[in-house]
Amino acid sequence: MSRQHETSDTKNVRSLRVGEQIRHALSDILSRGDVHDETLASHLVTITEVRMSPDLRHATVFAKPLLGADEEVVLKAMRTHTAYLQREVARRINLKYAAKLKFLGDESFDEGSHIDKLLRDPHVARDLTTGDDAEA
């Protein structure tokens, strides 16, 4: 049998697929309350994205508590239970190596809000409408 060589595209697709599987597994673990922690039990946490390293051994998990309340406290609780979460993810997802999880806060919502605020600024809105009128 000939061995198929992986191209960078197939590695990238695999990385995205594994990241999505880990995201679903973590979301399921947190939504079911499998982690026995008061902080995690009292907050709804969204796993927004999981980025995998090229070798699939490290996963950066971006999380955000509902409404962004107590983000640092929630992230600290998740970091405290990293070993348990890694074991559970490894049990649910069949990979050669169990991925090491690293938890970070998701700043994309804050960045989106900041961009929206800038676009709604009267000076910027004036420039945008002036540009549209000039094209018409």
Q: Describe it for me?
A:
Helix 1 (8-32) crosses helix 4 (82-92). This protein has a 3-stranded mixed sheet, covered by helices on one side. The longest helix has 25 residues, at 8-32. It contains 6 helices and 3 strands, in the order ααββααβαα. Strand 1 and strand 2 form a beta hairpin. It starts with 7 loop residues before the first helix and ends with a helix. 57% of the residues lie in helices and 16% in strands. The radius of gyration is 20 Å and the shape is flat. By secondary structure, the chain is of the alpha+beta class. The model has no long low-confidence stretch (mean pLDDT 81).
Please identify the structural class as seen in this structure: alpha+beta
Strand content: 15-25%
Q: How are the strands of the largest sheet arranged?
A: 1-2-3
By DSSP (H or I, 4+ residues per run), the number of helices equals 6
What proportion of the residues is helical, as a percent range? 55-70%
Cα distance spanning the termini: 64 Å
Tell me the major beta sheet. 3 strands, mixed
Gyration radius over CA: 20 Å
pLDDT averaged over residues? 81
Count the E strands.
Answer: 3
Shape: flat
Helix and strand pattern: HHEEHHEHH
Low-confidence stretches: none
